[in-house]
Amino acid sequence: MNDVINTVLRDRERILSRISPKKLADYDFTQTHLKSTNVATDLDYQRVYKSFYVMGRRSGTWYQFYFALLEREKLNRSITFEAVLRTTFENMGGRVEPSFSSKLVATIRPEAPIYDDVVRNNLGIAKPHYYKPARVRLLEALAAYKQIEGFYACCIEIRCVRNT
């Protein structure tokens, strides 16, 4: 993990330069409009959100559930990854959706980490195997997210130490 932290610190300017102005504008839009619109019904908000987070094709029912959950929880600053992951699992036919769950949480709490393939791979965290039972994958996703949270906490600690 220290190698990743050192690489990020060393290459931070190059990393930041790769973020496109459109991505920044989309992120700004999702954050500034979250509290002022009904995200469950605002199709423009949903379009920008799905584009920003590169949300693959899902059913209309899945998106209805997802954006209704985001609308319901958008003021909940204590929302957790585990709560969203379990709610999705229980309400969407046992689907284990760690990436989308983390993105919902990070939209509400921008300091929360994102769980996706890029982050997981760079941190050397194994991907849950899809041949395993859904409940096992759910537990593996929770454990992986804890590792990602640990990495974020370590980065913040290092940044704070270097700034003092």
Overview in brief:
This protein has 164 residues and is mainly α. 68% of the residues lie in helices and 0% in strands. The protein has one domain.
Description:
It is a single chain. With about 160 residues, the protein is mainly alpha-helical. The chain has one domain. The protein is about 70% helix and about 0% strand. The chain has helices at about 1-15, 20-35, 45-50, 60-75, 80-90, 100-110, 115-120, 135-160. It is globular. The relative contact order is 0.11.
Shape: globular
Based on the structure, what is the oligomeric state of the protein chains? single chain
Query: What string gives the helices and strands in order?
Result: HHHHHHHH
Number of helices: 8
Estimate the mean pLDDT confidence. Answer: 88
Hey, roughly how much beta strand do the residues contain? under 5%
How many beta strands in the DSSP annotation? 0
Low-pLDDT runs of 5+ residues are: none
Computed CA radius of gyration, to the nearest angstrom: 17 Å
Structurally, the number of domains stands at 1
End-to-end Cα distance, whole Å, is: 22 Å
